[in-house]
């Protein structure tokens, strides 16, 4: 388990490794696509043309970012949770979850 934890740590926090750089690039693309999704969803004609697509994408990105947050906590718990970026990531994960669960309850 410790070896896996060490490998994940090097990938997630180690920007000097090829795997770490690839992780960062994939994460940046996911963030950009998530923002693009929010922007497109705000355009009524696009939202109406693709019903259900944006709710699916919102859940997809929420699950993806939640998995990333959990992996960061598992590999470096104390330092990451209390860091500035750890708090930002927590908010970035919790707010869409609250929004998604609210929409599911009232059938947005």
Q: What can you tell me about this protein's structure?
A:
With 108 residues, the protein is an all-alpha fold. Helices cover 86% and strands 0% of the residues. The chain has six helices and no strands. Helix 1 (2-13) crosses helix 4. It is elongated.
The chain-level mean pLDDT equals: 87
**Helicity level, as a percent range?**
over 70%
Number of helices: 6
Instruction: Give the overall form.
Output: elongated
Alpha-carbon Rg, integer: 16 Å
Concise account of the structure shown:
With 108 residues, this protein is mostly helical. The protein has helices spanning 2-13, 18-41, 44-49, 53-75, 77-81, 84-106. Helix 1 packs across helix 2, helix 2 packs antiparallel against helix 4 (53-75) and helix 4 (53-75) packs antiparallel against helix 6 (84-106).
Chart the SSEs and their pairings:
Blueprint: H1 2-13, H2 18-41, H3 44-49, H4 53-75, H5 77-81, H6 84-106
Identify the notable features of this structure and list them briefly.
108 residues; mainly alpha; elongated; 86% helix; 6 helices
